[in-house]
Design brief:
The protein is an all-alpha fold. The protein has one domain. The chain has a two-stranded antiparallel ribbon. A hairpin with a 3-residue loop joins strand 1 and strand 2. Helix 3 packs antiparallel against helix 4 and helix 7 packs across helix 9. The model has no long low-confidence stretch (mean pLDDT 87).
Length: 294
């Protein structure tokens, strides 16, 4: 229930923030990134590593807000400027490690610290890029974010019901004993279907799918538009399920059940956002393709 509240709250903030209230967006994303990062660092600590916790949270917030403030331009052009926080993160982490003079843990500390920053913050920041996109006519990033979240999170619903009703073959029993091949396929089918529906109906998203269909097939047929939505929805679903499996294997390696308890009533933030991390860069890349088509 808490996971649903977190996702729903994020969607509401994205869809209804205007003017000064837009600052709630990077604040919320940086909060989620910080908690998720601390949970990932907890995994590392269970394995005996010593990641730089305060450093990671600090540069997570800096990185998220950098993307936000640069996005206040007409077009979102953060690729060059967003490299600076990453450079500063690597530099300062190295300075801290050198200053501590703990030679026997130097490599593991830098590796675990940067791994968390990349896996959680860098990947999650693509959601900010999606939301703030204003790269072409008709492209409102908020609606593409809605498409993205609905498709990816609906995968869990489809996988659960298909797995419950038809699941017989274990998918990866050593990593996630309850997941089945049938559930995996069912999740993709359900998400693909919603992708087709949203591509044909959702404001901002629908016109861009029409333009893509016209470019690829010289036709704006409803069937072709739906087929493209089906393809994108299925691709995001597959990446989302691999993201979920990735987090599961991190937890099993660290021998922990839930990723954390920073938010009461919730197993962990990473347990909620794990399926969003891998599809987010793919969705962002797809939007850049759509912009070039336009």
């Amino acid at each position: 229930m808490s996971a649903s509240v977190l996702i729903t709250s994020l969607v509401l903030i994205v869809m209804f923030s205007r003017g000064w209230s837009n600052i709630f967006l990077p604040t919320t994303i940086s909060f989620i990134a910080s908690i998720g990062l601390l949970e990932f660092y907890y995994f590392m600590e269970q394995k005996g590593y010593q990641p730089l916790r305060k450093w990671g949270v600090c540069f997570s917030i800096i990185y998220i807000f950098t993307i936000y403030f640069v996005s206040l331009k007409t077009k979102l052009q953060v690729e060059d400027l967003a490299l600076m926080p990453i450079f500063l993160a690597i530099l300062t982490a190295t300075i801290i490690i050198v200053a501590r003079q703990k030679i026997d843990t130097a490599l593991s500390t830098i590796a675990s610290s940067l791994a968390g920053f990349i896996y959680v913050t860098w990947l999650l920041a693509f959601i900010m890029r999606i939301i703030l996109w204003r790269g072409a006519d008709f492209m409102d990033g908020r609606f593409f974010f809605l498409f993205f979240v609905v498709v990816v999170k609906s995968t869990d619903i489809g996988a659960y019901f298909y797995g419950t009703w038809f699941g017989k073959h274990k998918l990866v029993p050593k990593i996630s004993p309850k997941k089945t091949v049938e559930g995996f396929i069912g999740g993709v089918i359900f998400a693909s279907t919603l992708g087709a529906i949203l591509a044909s109906t959702l404001p901002s998203v629908h016109p861009m799918f029409i333009k893509l269909s016209e470019t690829l097939f010289k036709s704006d047929s409803t069937i072709l538009v739906a087929a493209l939505g089906l393809l994108i929805g299925g691709s995001l679903s597959i990446l989302g399920q691999f993201g979920d499996l990735a987090e599961s294997i991190w937890k099993r390696d660290a021998k922990v059940k839930d990723s954390g308890g920073y938010i009461p009533g919730m197993g962990g933030v990473l347990d909620v956002i794990d399926s969003l991390l891998f599809p987010a860069p793919a969705m962002y890349l797809f939007m850049k393709v759509l912009e070039n088509v336009n």
